[in-house]
Design goal:
The complex is a heterodimer.
Chain A (H helix, E strand, L loop, with lengths): L1 H41 L2 E2 L6 E2 L3 H8 L1 H32 L7 H9 L6 H11 L5 H8 L13 H29 L3 H9 L4 H29 L3 H6 L11 H11 L4 H25 L5
Helix pairs in contact in A: 3-7, 3-9, 7-9, 9-12, 11-12
Chain B lengths: L1 H29 L9 E7 L5 H15 L3 E7 L2 H14 L8 E5 H10 L21 H4 E2 L2 E2 L2 E2 L5 E6 H6 L12 H15 L4 E3 L5 H9 L18 H14 L4 E3 L3 H9 L5 E5 L3 H5 L8 E4 L19 E5 L5 H10 L5 H11 L26 H9 L11 H16 L4 H15 L2
Parallel strand pairs in B: 1-2, 1-3, 8-9
Antiparallel strand pairs in B: 3-12, 4-5, 6-12, 7-10, 7-11
Classes of the chains: A mainly alpha, B alpha/beta.
InterPro entries (chain B): Bact_solute-bd_prot1, SBP
Pfam families (chain B): SBP_bac_8
Protein name (chain B): Extracellular solute-binding protein
Amino acid sequence: MRNASVARSRLQPRWTGWLFISIAVLLICAFYFYPMIQALLLSFKTGTGAQIHYTGFDNYERLFSDKVFKTALKNTFLFLIIQVPVMIVLALFISVLLNDSKLKFKGFFRTAIFLPCVTSLVAYSVVFKYLFGNDGLINKLFLNLHLIHDPIQWITDPFWAKITIIIAITWRWTGYNMIFYLSALQNIDNSIYEAARIDGASPIRQFFKITVPLLKPIILFTSITSTIGTLQLFDEVVNITKGGPGNATMSISQYIYNLSFKYTPDFGYAATVSYSIVVLIILLSFIQFKAAGDSK
Amino acid sequence: MKKLMFIMIAAVLVLTACGSKSNNANDTAGNNGNTAGGSKEVTVWAWDPNFNIAAMKLAKDAYATENPDVKVNIIEYAQADIIQKLNTGLNSGTTSGLPNVVLIEDYRAQSFLKAYPDSFYKMSDLIKSSDFADYKIASTSLDGVQYGVPFDSGVTGLYVRTDYLKDAGYSVADITNVDWDKFIEIGKAVKAKTGKFMLTQDPNDLGLIRMMIQSAGSWYLKSDGTTPDLKDNAALKDALTTYKKLMTADIVKVTSDWSQFLAGFNSGDVASVPTGNWISPSVKAEASQSGKWAVVPMPKLKNTASSVNASNLGGSSWYVLNIDGKEAAAEFLAKTMGSDVELYQKMVKQIGVIGTLKTAAEGEAYKAADEFFGGQKTVADFAAWTQKIPQVNYGMHTYAIEDILVPEVQNYMSGSDLDKVLANAQSQAESQLK
C-alpha cells in the first residue's frame, strides 16, 4: 500500500512536469525546429519566387564561387576581428574604472555609458549617418580643429566606411557588455584584492592576475554573444552605408536580404547563405570555448 | 494539481480562440473584395503619400461618383515593405492578406510576373497597350499579355540653373539637345567661372548609367530579359567611358544619400540635375530659386548612334492580383488609370504626376506654363519626350546586376581596364543569375 502510493507520487510529478513544459516544447518545435528543417530543405532548392525545385548541392557549389558572398564574409570577419576585441577590452576597462569604490557619480556614468543600448538600431544608425556625412558634424569638427585639410569620406570611401561601421557598433554595444562585467566584478570578494595589496601587487598586476582570470567565464560569454551579434549585423550597415560603397561594407545578413527581397527572389539560395552563418557560429563558438580552455 | 491543469487547459483554449479570432479579423481586413452583401471592396497598396497615394486618391474620388457601391481602400506602405509582403504572400500561397491592386516599380515588374505566374490578372481585355507610351509596355507585359496598367512617366530631363550658365557664358540653347561630352565641357566652364559643381552623384547609385544606356535602347540584359549583356555592350562601354570622364572632370559633388542629393540643388551648390521628372516638386520646393531653372532634354551618348535625347529613370505601374475580387479591381483600374483623361489632368495640376496615357497629353493641364521654370511648358515638354524614350526590356535582374556592376565600376574608376572590368561583371552575373 505504502509502496504503491510512493510510486504514484513519484510518477505523478514526472507527468505533470512534462505537461508543464509540453506547451513550450510544442511551441519551440513549431516555431524554431520546424522552420529550421524547412530552411535546410529550402537550401537545396533553386528557382525564382514560387517556381522552386530540388537541385541537390548546386546552391552550395554556387556559394563557394560567389564573389559577393566572399566579400560579405570578408567584411563580416574584418568587423569581427577588429571590433569585438576592441569592444571587449573597452568594456572591461570602463567597468573596472566604474567599479572603483572612490568614484563619485557612479550611477550617472553607468547610465550614460549604458544609454546607447536602449536606442533603436535604426534611429542611431541614421544619426550616425548624418554625423559622419561628408559635411557632417565630425568632419566639420576636424576641419575647424585643423586636424584635416579635406573632409574624410566617412561613408563613400571603402576604407573609411568600414571604420564608420566599427565605430558605430562599438558605441552601441560597449555599454551592454560593460553591464555584464560590472555585475561580475561585484561578485569578486574584496578580500582577494586586499590580500594582493598587502602582498604588494600593483593595480595593473591585480587587474591581470585577479580581475581577468576571475572574469574569464563572462569574457567568454560576451565574446561569444558579440561574435554572434556581429555575424548577424544588418541594421547598421543597411542604414549607414547601404552596404556600400560597392560591396565594401556588405554583411552576410544584408546579402541574404538582397537575395530574398532586393533581387528577383531566390529563397533557396538565400537559405543556403543563412545556413553558412549557422555553421560559422557553431565553429566560432567551439573555437572560443577551446581557446578559453573551458572543458565544461 | 487539478486546478492548475484546468487553468492551463483554459489558457490554451483562450489562446487558440484568440488565434482564430485574429484570423477572422485578417480575412475582413484583407478585403478580398468579397461580393457578399452587394458592396465591393478594392484594396490598393502603394508608397509615397505625396505622389502615388495622392494620385490613387484622385482616382478613387473620380470612380466613387459613378460607382458608389465600390469601396476603395488605399493603404500606404514603404516600397520595400510592399515587395516583402508580396513576395512572402505569393510564395506561401496565402493570399488572404494581399491587396487587389498593387503598385510595382517597372524595374522589378518582370521579376514578379515571371517568378509568380498566374498570380497577376490579365488586363489585355480591359485596356489597350497602344494607348500608353511605347516604352512602358515591355516592362508591364509578359509574352504579349498586358498585365500592368502603365502609370507615371519616368521621363528624364536635364534641370539647369540658367543664371549659373549665363555667368559661365552659355545660354539654355547651348545645352539643349547636346551630348554628354558637351555637357562636361560646359560643366568645366561653370566650375571655373562660378565655382559651382555641375551636378551631384552618389557613387553607389548607377542611375546615370541606366539613363545613358536606355537612351541608346540598351540595358544590362539582352532583350529576352534574362541573359546578362555587359561584356560586349557597346552602349554600356560608351556610357561608362563618359561616366569616368564626368567623374574625373572635377565637376561632381559626391553625395551618399537622397537628402544630400536634394540639398545639393536646393542649396544652390550645383548647376544642373540630370534625373527623372518626378524631381520637379523637390526642385520647386526651394521657392527662392523661382525663375532660375529650366528643363532641357537629356544629353545623349556621343559615340553611340542609336542614342537619343530622351530617357527614363524609375516609374511604376499598377497591377491586379489574381485573387478574389479581381474583376472589380480590374474594372476600377481600367476606368480610372487606364482611360480617364480628366483624371490625368487633375493629377498633373494637383500633384505633378505625368502619366503615360497618350491621349492625356492633349488635355489643358498638360499645356500649362510653369512660372518657376521661367514660363516653360515643362509638362508638355516632358510628355513629348516620353514618346521618344527607347523601349527596353528591364528584365528580371536590374538590381542584382547593378550590385555586381557598382564595385566593378569602382575598379574601373581607380584604373582597371574597362574590357576586363566588364568581362568580370559578365562572368559574375552569368554564374549568379541562373
